[in-house]
Amino acid sequence: MKKEIRKENGGTRDGIPRGVPKSIAEFDRINELTGAGLPRTGDLSILSSAYRIGQFTVPNRLVCQPMEGCDGCPDGSPGELTVRRARKLASSGAGIIWFEATACLPEARANPRQLMLTEDNISSFARLADEMREISVRENGFAPLIMLQLTHSGRYSRPHGAPAPIRAYSWPEAERGSETLPALITDDELDEVREALLRSSALTEKAGFDGADIKCCHRYLSSELLSAYTRENSRYGGDFDGRTRLIRETLAGAVANSSHGFIVGTRINIYDGIAYPYGFGCRTDGTLEPDMSEPVKLIRMLYGAGASLIDITAGNPYFNPHVNRPFAAGPYMPEEHPAAGVARLLELTAEVKRELPEDLPVISSGLSWLGAASPGVAAAYIGKGGFDFAGFGRLTLACPGFAKKILGGEGLRPSDLCAACSGCTSLMRLPGGTPGCILKDRLYTDIYRKMRSAEAK
Question: Domain tally for the chain?
Answer without folding.
Answer: 1
